[in-house]
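[Automated response] Your request has been received and processed.

Submitted sequence:
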Amino acid sequence: MGSTLGTSGSIFQTLGVTVKANTTYTLKVHAGARADYPFTGYNAALLGGNVVLALGNSATPVGGSFVTDTITLRSRTGATRPTSSGLHQE
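Generated structure:
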């Protein structure tokens, strides 16, 4: 797992798998807000190489708490590349 931290943070993990047809991929993220600092948002994504396949950023935790965001990607028949129209986000 790698991370880059600065004024905003990010964390990532490379799995090294190929997107397969007729498969559902799910990413659950716990987004937290500091009690002493305003929550400024986040982005969580499922990537195929450098292509964003599904994005989540809608959970809004109140100060001092965490909430869960679930990002789901369901590939369709014939979807073999991240840029294929056979992929869609739920």
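Summary generated for your ticket: The first strand starts at residue 2 and ends at 5. The beta strands are 2-5, 9-12, 24-33, 44-48, 51-56, 65-75, 87-89.
If you did not submit this request, please reply to this message.
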